[in-house]
Amino acid sequence: MSGVEIRELETFLVLAQELHFGRTGERLYVSQSRVSQLLRSLESRIGAPLVERTSRRVRLTPLGESFLADLRPAYDTLRAAVEGARAAARGLGGELRVGFQGTVDGCLGRAIALFTDRHPDCAVTIVEIPLSDPFGALRRHEVDCAVVLLPVAEDDLTLGPAFSRQPQTLAVSARHPFAARESLSAEELACCRLIGIDGGAPEYWRRAQAPALTPGGLPVPAGPTVNTLQEGLSLAAADRGAMLLCRSTADYHGRRGSLAFVAVRDLPASELGLVRHRTRPSPRAEAFARAVTEITGTTGITEITGPAS
């Protein structure tokens, strides 16, 4: 990197947030002139200005904007790696709070057991989070990481690993015409009212769990909306609508005599992902992510892209 120093990069990142040399110096505990010096050194290494500074305002140049977009995720990953190594060196104590939606399957249970074996001084608390708010508990610092249904397209969160890819099933009342079927096509969803998720979750996420159209473009009638899995199962049992679930959740609840679970062909598979803060990495959460990666045989951090239209 042609001798680029981490302090230069940190100065640029803070200045890009503050857009003020004085406040940047205060945050970094250096003088305003030192901020200017570090910025000039970085710009000299790059070969072009990253910041425009006038008597009235400070703003990033187009190159600065592009550099910031590339630098931020790389810096966050580097910082998380350093924090993870420091945590491994000193051991992890305290508490890890893991949020989850639906049920804790065997894969997640094994990951928790592996994490506990490696870090016996760190207690693991399991916190159920509502379907209607998959990311809120993480943003409110109520949990350190969360296992949620995909997709995830949140700029402030890191996704990975993704795991537990399974076919989708439809939960219906035992009295429903579909109840005696072994499977149905995705196009037949147009014949039932689909239970949706209440409005706290992002629109793209809610649509993924309860699509408005079949793959062939047929409209799917909207049923009632719910906050929790149990609410959805209760409404399905009362024949108020049908609810899409992953295979493992259907198997877990499969002994309920009031419900039937029917495989749905031609739908994208359901998948879970472990989500953490991007800007506030937690050594405990990163260590847990490594445990999940080992148990699931997946590849770790997944790049988050923007929500589908």
Written account of the structure:
The chain starts with 5 loop residues before the first helix and ends in a 13-residue tail after the last helix. The radius of gyration is 24 Å and the shape is elongated. The chain is α/β, with parallel strands linked by helices and 309 residues long. The protein has helices at residues 6-18, 21-28, 32-46, 62-90, 106-118, 136-139, 203-209, 229-237, 247-252, 283-296; strands at 51-53, 58-60, 94-100, 122-128, 145-149, 157-166, 168-173, 183-185, 194-197, 222-226, 243-246, 259-265, 270-277. It has three domains: 6-87, Winged helix-like DNA-binding domain superfamily/Winged helix DNA-binding domain (Arc Repressor Mutant, subunit A), CATH 1.10.10; 91-165 and 271-296, Periplasmic binding protein-like II (D-Maltodextrin-Binding Protein, domain 2); 168-268, Periplasmic binding protein-like II (D-Maltodextrin-Binding Protein, domain 2, 3-Layer(aba) Sandwich), CATH 3.40.190.10. Strand 3 (94-100), helix 5 (106-118) and strand 4 form a beta-alpha-beta unit.
